[in-house]
Structures are given as structure tokens and as C-alpha cells.
């Protein structure tokens, strides 16, 4: 029984690694990778996409928005992330903490809160399946 569970977990990890690829939306010291993409069978026309954002020490993403169809739930996996959504306060989220973005929100600040340690977050999007681009730079 334990061997079959190990095989299932290994297969899932290998599948996620095989489909992972870099996506636009990074900034200085930021790596953005699509790690999961699955159509929702009970919500026609919608998909769930997981995006891993890895920040080097002092790394950041440029100010951006997401598709107007996107609801995003982000969880900090490692380190601490400084974030500002719309005109709200600049917040610092530590490993294990989460935040969300609603359709149409502007993400003006998204950066590693540390100049010496890396940080990672997983952003899970529920978005229109036809929508391929997930990040758009803010117009200046």
C-alpha cells in the first residue's frame, strides 16, 4: 500500500515538473513558472492555474494586473512577500500566510521583503480557460 502511494506522489510531482514552464510577468530577481493548468469539469469555460513566483533576495515583480476574469488566491511558501493590492496598505505576508486578488484588482507592489533571503509564493488562478496571458504590466 505504501509503495502505491509513493508511486502516485512521484507521478504527480514528475507531471507537474514536466509541464512547468516560465511565464511572463517577472521583474528583477523574479522567476514566474506555470506549474498547474486544469480545466474545471463542473464550471464550463473556467480553469485553475497554479503559478510559482520565486524571488531572489531583493527581487520584485513590476506593477501589474491580471485578466478581468481571474480570481487569485496566493500563499507564501517561503520567506516573506511585501504586497499591495489596489490602493490598500502595503502588507508583509510570511510563510504560511495568504491573500487574494479579485477580478480587476491592481497589484502595485509584489516583492521579496528580504534583501538577504529568497521568497516563494504560489498563486492559484481561477480564470477563463481561453485566457492565456495571466499578467499585464500597469500602464504608466
Question: What secondary-structure arrangement, pairings included, does this model have?
Answer:
Layout: H1 2-19, E1 21-22, E2 30-39, E3 46-55, E4 60-61, E5 64-65, E6 71-78, E7 80-85, E8 91-94, E9 98-101, E10 106-112, E11 119-128, E12 136-137
Antiparallel strand pairs: 1-2, 2-3, 3-11, 4-10, 5-10, 5-12, 6-9, 6-11, 7-8, 7-10
Describe this structure in words.
- With 140 residues, the chain is mostly beta strands.
- The chain is 13% helix and 48% strand.
- The protein has one helix and twelve strands.
- The chain has one helix at 2-19; strands at 21-22, 30-39, 46-55, 60-61, 64-65, 71-78, 80-85, 91-94, 98-101, 106-112, 119-128, 136-137.
- It starts with a helix and ends with a strand.
- Residues 1-25 have low confidence and may be disordered.
Amino acid at each position: 500500500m505504501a509503495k502505491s502511494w509513493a508511486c502516485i506522489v512521484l507521478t504527480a510531482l514528475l507531471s507537474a515538473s514536466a509541464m512547468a514552464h516560465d511565464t511572463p510577468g517577472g521583474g528583477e530577481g523574479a522567476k514566474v513558472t506555470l506549474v498547474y493548468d486544469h480545466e474545471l469539469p463542473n464550471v464550463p469555460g473556467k480553469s485553475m492555474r497554479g503559478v510559482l513566483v520565486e524571488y531572489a533576495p531583493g527581487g520584485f515583480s513590476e506593477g501589474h494586473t491580471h485578466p478581468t476574469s481571474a480570481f487569485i488566491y496566493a500563499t507564501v511558501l517561503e520567506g516573506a512577500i511585501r504586497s499591495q493590492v489596489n490602493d490598500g496598505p502595503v502588507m508583509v505576508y510570511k510563510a504560511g500566510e495568504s491573500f487574494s486578488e479579485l477580478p480587476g484588482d491592481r497589484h502595485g507592489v509584489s516583492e521579496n521583503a528580504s534583501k538577504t533571503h529568497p521568497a516563494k509564493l504560489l498563486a492559484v488562478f481561477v480564470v477563463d480557460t481561453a485566457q492565456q496571458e495571466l499578467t499585464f504590466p500597469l500602464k504608466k
